[in-house]
Amino acid sequence: MAQAIRYRVDIDRRTGAVLVGIPALLQALDVIWMTRTNLRVMLLDFGSNLRSWLSEDLTPALALQIYGDLASTTHRWEREYRVREFQFVRMSQTGTLGLKHGGLYYPEGRFGNYDIAIPLNATPRDLGRYVPELAA
Q: What is the mean pLDDT of residues 76-105?
């Protein structure tokens, strides 16, 4: 008999709504990527150095450093997601930087189970079919 997938359940930081599965993962990635290192008292190495790159002129070498920083940070702190690709999708002179990522989502990765893998390209319209229904 097949066992039900144990999706991560979290609370949305902005609305207080319940997040299940991929939306919870995306919120966790946002926290990891947007937290500067040395800010959390008991986890000084938690986070990424993404903001330190934003004041530099974007060159191919810098893009590779940004990709490397985000991929290694994700691999270290998020056991449910493995990045496979990054792509810059929006840049502006005012400092806006848009980044699309894709990879494999492992819903039970936090338990060490990597048998279930769901391909993920972070576009909002693709997320609905992987989010389980909450029991009423």
A: 83
